[in-house]
Backbone:
């Protein structure tokens, strides 16, 4: 029979293996977009929007009625309830009524504000998804650049061995060996820089996804390298005008400001207050005859004779409406600029990808292969061979940089 400590050790080993396997599972672009939902800034913005959704019901209803209880017309000399005919115990209720349409406009304004808050959540979600996807593609580029460094290190090691072999046989120069070792050291430095950049980018992505900053991120080794044709700029702009939450939010803020202007106009009209009371009187102490109880109904209204306050309020709301209109124009210009810049960047990167993939890199590979063969028979010096290999490395790195930039522009 196995001992308990052994069983515990076995269980812990299994858990470690499971966690390791889970941690090493590639993080896809689709998963990144979904995990943005856990971002604390998005959760906070969403909670604020939910809180705002409760405001229309608060301002759209009548104020609470007021219950009053009083002792009316008591004589100060005796405080007897039955001494005077008008002495009474009174209970009353009153209800305030803002001018018709006031409550509806207040609720409508806050409803537009609540919708704007919800659209603000959608806008932040899109921004976080874009930021996460751009970070993901930066990591993808850094992974490909590191792979390219590893391949070039292997090739340089081969060239170093060839140079050493030729030097030992008297057919090569010692400076060729030293040059190869120097280029290897340079590649090692580049590798360290890329690894540091990848770690920093991983921290940024983990932060957006609300994960531990140092949690490892493993990406798929390969992705579809086809770059689709972009839609026309005007088509993208029309879609943005219709669907972009940032612009729709500004529309709602304008509608809310318009409702506030209409609400300010209502301030020039009176508000009303309706009240009813019932007075209980005591019996006549002399005749012992019950006195009739008393009932009262009152209607009162405010008299907005002094318009300075209303004028100032109306001026404030109109200025706020103008401000929201300008804010929409500013947001629209910013969105249109984003589209133009992203489209320009995408088309440029797409053209570079095609140029590197179909022309420059194949030609550079042929050049390196030809010069390597020529070097082995002493027809090309080692310096030119090294330069050709470094140039190929730079082109391969630039290809992945352009590819990642194109994907980031799409994001």
Residues:
């Amino acid at each position: 029979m196995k001992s308990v400590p052994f069983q515990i050790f076995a269980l812990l080993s299994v858990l470690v293996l499971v966690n390791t396997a889970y941690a090493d599972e590639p993080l896809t672009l689709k998963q990144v977009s979904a995990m943005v939902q856990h971002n604390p800034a998005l959760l906070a913005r969403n909670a604020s929007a939910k809180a705002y959704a409760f405001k229309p019901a608060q301002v759209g209803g009548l104020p609470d009625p007021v219950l009053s209880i009083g002792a009316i017309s008591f004589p100060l000399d005796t405080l007897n309830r039955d001494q005077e005919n008008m002495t009474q115990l009174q209970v009353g209720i009153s209800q305030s009524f803002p001018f018709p349409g006031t409550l509806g406009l207040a609720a409508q304004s806050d409803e537009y504000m609540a919708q704007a808050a919800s659209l603000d959540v959608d806008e932040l979600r899109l921004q976080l998804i874009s930021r996460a996807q751009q970070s993901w593609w930066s990591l993808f580029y850094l992974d490909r650049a590191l792979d390219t460094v590893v391949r070039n290190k292997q090739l340089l090691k081969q060239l170093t061995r060839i140079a050493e072999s030729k030097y030992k046989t008297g057919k090569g120069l010692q400076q060729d060996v030293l040059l190869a070792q120097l280029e290897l050291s340079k590649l090692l430095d580049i590798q360290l820089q890329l690894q540091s950049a990848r770690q920093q980018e991983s921290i940024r992505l983990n932060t957006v996804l609300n994960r531990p900053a140092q949690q490892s991120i493993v990406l798929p080794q390969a992705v579809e390298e086809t770059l689709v044709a972009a839609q026309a700029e005007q088509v993208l702009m029309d879609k943005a005008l219709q669907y972009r939450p940032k612009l729709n939010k500004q529309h709602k803020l304008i509608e809310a400001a318009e409702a506030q202007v209409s609400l300010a106009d209502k301030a020039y009209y009176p508000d009303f207050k309706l009240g009813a009371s019932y007075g209980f009187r005591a019996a006549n102490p002399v005749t012992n005859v019950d006195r009739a109880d008393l009932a009262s109904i009152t209607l009162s209204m405010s008299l907005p004779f002094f318009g300075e306050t209303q004028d100032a309020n109306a001026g404030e709301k109109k200025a706020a409406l103008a401000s929201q209109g300008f804010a929409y124009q500013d947001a629209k210009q910013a969105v249109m600029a984003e589209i133009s810049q992203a489209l320009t960047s995408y088309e440029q990167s797409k053209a570079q990808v095609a140029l590197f993939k179909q022309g420059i890199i194949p030609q550079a590979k042929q050049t390196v292969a030809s010069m390597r063969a020529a070097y082995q028979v002493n027809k090309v010096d080692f310096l030119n061979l090294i330069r050709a290999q470094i140039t190929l490395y730079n082109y391969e790195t630039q290809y992945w940089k352009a590819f990642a930039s194109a994907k980031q522009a799409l994001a």
